[in-house]
Amino acid sequence: MSPLVTPPFASRGGTADDDALPELFATTDLGLTPGAYAELLASKHGSGDSIAVHVRLPFCPSRCLNCDHHTTVTHNSETIDEYIVGLEREISMVTDRIGRGLTLNQLHLGGGTPNYLSDTQLVQLMDVLDRHFHVTSDTETSLEANPKRCSPSQLTLLRGLGFRILDLQIRDLDSSVQLAIGRSHSLSVLEDVINSARSEGFETISMDLVYGLPNQSVESVHGTVANMINLNPDRIICQSFSPRPSVFKHQRALDAESLPSLADKVAMFNTASETLMGNGYEWVGLDCFALEHDALTRAKHAGHLHRNWVGYTDRDSGDLYGFGADAISQLREANVQNKVQLGEWHEAVQSGVLPLCTGERISESEQRQQAALSALLCNLELSDYGDLLEDNDLLKELASQGFVEISDDKVSVTEYGRFALHQRWSDASPHYRAARGIALAS
């Protein structure tokens, strides 16, 4: 792979400013109250459509300084027990309207640290989900996990509960980087976890690499990627870290002087991508690198790669319903974010009110725009964009920034655009969240 073009905004000094990219897909400000959302949910009753579910479990034993999620550090198991009770209340409010027993195309447990839950709590949570949804052998079941908490017995339980994808939250393997963000993972522990997961029958092992962290260098990222490759995960997800200390107060403890420049981040991503592709991993979409046998690689070649709030998937998962504090629901007609603060979320569900923090309807025109972005994020080209150019300035805006090239019959993501879109619309980026129509709540 040839080196990526240096982003033009890198020359303006340091980090890219928030105005460097168009504000794409900010939905029309129609608003969506809990009552209106309840009516929208009820309108879906009887459709029989398969859906996806994301359960947010915002609990951690300690807080990582780079974390860009609203989490709660607790060592009180009763706090988590009460949360599971609240989850069932929220899930009941939704399934009472859309119908119970709908088949799940996709089920994801995100954090926080989902495997911080005890064995009993994990079983209770899955019992709740089984009472309200139909989880089949074909459901894409995944959860994020801290490898330090992945005991052999827990992996046995998780596989027995039906989980097929283990998403190990690594970030980085360099000791100085781990120290700077408050994490620690030894290669020997990771190797043991992966071997145990393989023996238990997990179909996919995924790892994440976050670049742009304190104390990182091009050399250290190369070393981390090399060590990850030796562990032979099926997927490695590369995400860009962009600190937002005004939203996440704990990030103020990061040493700003040790954060890489934007130019350094470009070089880090180049190094990571070249190393991965030189060792049997294929670049899928914008941020995923997967081995040839992986379901995402096969979906890419078959032309049915999809993406939702959870990430890339090999299926059209339909409406995605998020449950829990700060969870996001991504429906065809609306995007909804739950209340961020745990206490406010509890108060709403205990009162029998859908715990919306923000909610916006999506017009038909905006649905087409989001479909276009999804196609670009997945396939890197759009061969049938119909009247999108006439309806709005989306593709023209992307072209003016150098992200895409427009020909008579095709829109293609440029080499620079592949980096820039990944950099700015990765899961860690507020622009990606804005593209989903959700204002990032503080």
Automatic annotation (TrEMBL):
Residues reported in the UniProt entry to bind [4Fe-4S] cluster: C60, C64, C67
Keyword annotations: 4Fe-4S, Cytoplasm, Iron, Iron-sulfur, Metal-binding, Oxidoreductase, Porphyrin biosynthesis, S-adenosyl-L-methionine
Broadest EC class assigned to this enzyme: oxidoreductase
GO cellular component: cytoplasm
Cofactor annotation: [4Fe-4S] cluster
Single annotated GO MF: 4 iron, 4 sulfur cluster binding
Subcellular location: Cytoplasm
Annotated positions binding S-adenosyl-L-methionine 2: G112, T113, R183, D208
Domain Radical SAM core: 43-270
SMART domains: Elp3 (SM00729)
Pathway the protein takes part in: Porphyrin-containing compound metabolism; protoporphyrin-IX biosynthesis; protoporphyrinogen-IX from coproporphyrinogen-III (AdoMet route): step 1/1
Presence of the UniProt keyword Transcription regulation in the record: no
Cofactor binding remark: Binds 1 [4Fe-4S] cluster. The cluster is coordinated with 3 cysteines and an exchangeable S-adenosyl-L-methionine.
Record's catalysed reaction(s): coproporphyrinogen III + 2 S-adenosyl-L-methionine = protoporphyrinogen IX + 2 5'-deoxyadenosine + 2 L-methionine + 2 CO2
Positions that bind S-adenosyl-L-methionine 1: G111, E144, I328
GO BP terms: protoporphyrinogen IX biosynthetic process
E.C. number(s) listed in UniProt: 1.3.98.3
Known partners and oligomeric status: Monomer.
Similarity comment: Belongs to the anaerobic coproporphyrinogen-III oxidase family.
Name this protein carries in UniProt: Coproporphyrinogen-III oxidase
Organism for this UniProt entry: Pseudohaliea rubra DSM 19751
Taxonomy of the source species: Bacteria, Pseudomonadati, Pseudomonadota, Gammaproteobacteria, Cellvibrionales
